[in-house]
Amino acid sequence: MARFRTWVGIAVAGALTLSLAGCSSTGGKRAEDARKAAAAQGRAAVNTPRWTFAMITHSGDGDTFWDIVQSGAEQAAVKDNVDFLYSHDDEAHQQAQLVDAAVDKKVDGIIVTLAKPDALRAAVARARKAGIPVVTVNSGSAESREFGALTHIGQDETIAGEAVGEELDERGRKKALCVLHEQGNVGHEQRCDGVAKTFDGTVDRLYVNGTSMPDVQSAIEAKLQADKSVDAVVTLGAPYADTAVRARRDAGSDAEVATFDLNAKVAAGLQDGTLAFAVDQQPYLQGYEAVDLLWLYKYNADVLGGGKPVLTGPQIITKDDAAALAEYTKRGTR
Fold it and tell me: Which of 18, 59, 75, 268 has the lowest tally of Cβ within 10 angstroms?
């Protein structure tokens, strides 16, 4: 496998209200059936008590990134003899209510994202008061320790953005468009801040309605038509990369398109040259390690990170790397 360039070395390392059902509305019936089949064939590798862990994310419907996170968590749960419950809501106050519901259910551990941390503060505090260990994942590395979480698993979003800025410099880009698809998400702002910090050119921010791909495409297309000096478009999620490629085409622009996160379509785009590069934060690893670390804490009082986030990225993925990863993106683990 091609060697990845990585910036990891900075650090050492209500549906739920009704039932907390362990399924995702983002993957469709086929994806859910495949997950259930895989879990049914798995066998626990330990004989620890049958603990119950709940993961509550800020995912919206149809975001394949979170299917990968969930897949990793579910496979770790099989190994660790854990009942895994998954729920999500892209509205922060609804996500907080899902955390409250998990606390009321007296689960043995909670995994939560802090994309909009202020809205989750009270819910996480309630979990900690109830004696439920909490691991934060993906978003909220800066707030995780303050909120009393055991550790945070994910990438440092500012560092990830800095890696993008450096890559754009290497490619000779002069003006980048950073497309933010979820207003109020602190991690997205940090990514664009990081790009601006290391990029020698200029960075414009474009806020779009991420729940409507036609709106996203038309907004990017209009910006590229209005400003021909934009020679790079950076999307902050894999599902938006293909939309940006279409917008570039329809605008008659020569701008390179890069994206945060990886999926099968992104891997294909890297291979055929329609995408310049991607930033992989390894979502499968985020889900897997979140469950594993909660199990380690429950079993042996282990805590990784030493108070620092456990980093899963970023890795810059280019055309040279894409072929080696295609097998993993197709099976839904990268």
Answer: 18
DSSP 93-128: HHHHHHHHHHHHTT-SEEEE--SSHHHHHHHHHHHH
pLDDT of residue 41: 53
User: Which of 77, 64, 76, 83 has its CA nearest to residue 25?
Assistant: 64
Q: How far from the centroid of its chain's Cα atoms is residue 51's Cα?
A: 25
Residue matched to tokens 């907390």: 20
Q: For the chain, how many helices (H) and strands (E)?
A: 13, 13
Pick from 257, 130, 237: nearest CA to 187: 237
The answer to whether residues 83 and 51 touch, using CB atoms and an 8 Å cutoff, is yes
Integer Cα distance of 233 and 323 in angstroms: 23
170, amino acid identity: E
What would the two tokens of residue 248 be?
């570039």
pLDDT in the model for residue 62:
79
Measured CA to CA, the distance from residue 223 to residue 289 in angstroms comes to 40
Give the list of residues 6+ apart from residue 273 with CB closer than 8 angstroms, or none: 319
Cβ partners under 8 Å of residue 166, min gap 6: 198, 199
Mapping DSSP to helix (H, G, I), strand (E, B) and coil, where does residue 176 land?
strand
Q: In this structure, what is the dihedral angle of CA atoms 264, 269, 270, 273, given to the nearest 10 degrees?
A: 160
Beta bridge partners of 202: 175
Could you give the CA distance from residue 144 to residue 253 in angstroms, rounded to a whole number? Answer: 41
Distance CA 74, CA 84 (A): 6
